[in-house]
Design brief:
Nucleotidyltransferase, domain 5; two-stranded antiparallel sheet; alpha/beta; elongated; about 20% strand; 11 helices
Length: about 325
Amino acid sequence: MALPQSAVSELLEAFRAGQGLDLIRESVRMVLQELIEAEASEVIGAARYERTTTRTTQRNGHRDRQLSTQAGDVSLQIPKLRQGAFFPVILEPRRRIDQALHAVVMEAYVHGVSTRAVDELVAALGIDAGISKSEVSRICAGLDKTVGAFRTRTLGHTSFAYVYLDATYLHVREARLGQVVSKAVVVATGITATGGREVLGLAVGDSEEETFWRAFLTDLRERGLSGVRLVISDQHAGLVAALRRCLQGAAHQRCRVHFARNLLALIPQSHKDMVAAVFRTIFAQPDQAAVDVRGAVGGPAADGLVVLHDLAQALGAAAARAGRLGA
């Protein structure tokens, strides 16, 4: 497709005048308009003012259509036909922004930008018409379908020997209550025997109680999760109880990161750096024999192991005393 000579002349004139943004916007408009005209000519069977034996109908004016692009608002003209209807495939019915800007709006929404701020963002991109809150919601409704399909997909295509379970708390707007509340968001990540990693599922609930974890794990099983040999997570009571009921036969290992946080929370401030360093060296060893050798050689690491051992004994004694007092 070639642009008419007059259109090229207009673009060159805008370029010489230094109207960079206008040049880009006008270039986008001209290319889109030429695509629309070419498609209309194919549907009609003849170009404008052309006489052919293949013509099926005639043009009957046009209707204006404003399209918001990343280059700004552009005004397009969609040909009308005397017989039949025509709508170009490069546009979509009831959508007045192009695919690129559509992606920008969705990306901003995913990152937590409010619908009001999205309108300001669109205006900053040069879209004078702006975008309403209802349109932002309609655009992002497509995300719900994509996320829903991801959350309900089958997991039977392979087995996941190792499964990581974790949770975090996020502020979520509860439509039923009309306010923002704290919700638990749980995520399951699977590792295959060959080292492949895949997010298995996610769910949002009021808290990490056993019934919530049990429903989440049951859903994973029903979607085809199999071959689980080891589950890595924190030591939350509700999660551990749910694992016993839903993933029987799989071993459970306490997450190293959570264990380190729990450990350092009980260590005096003056010893935290040393204990943290020794803790990291333990997991850096290739096997149990290397740990024993490193501790027997002496030096700072061995001193740290002694301190860690002494602290562990002291913490154990304190926990035992607390248990007896509670009884």
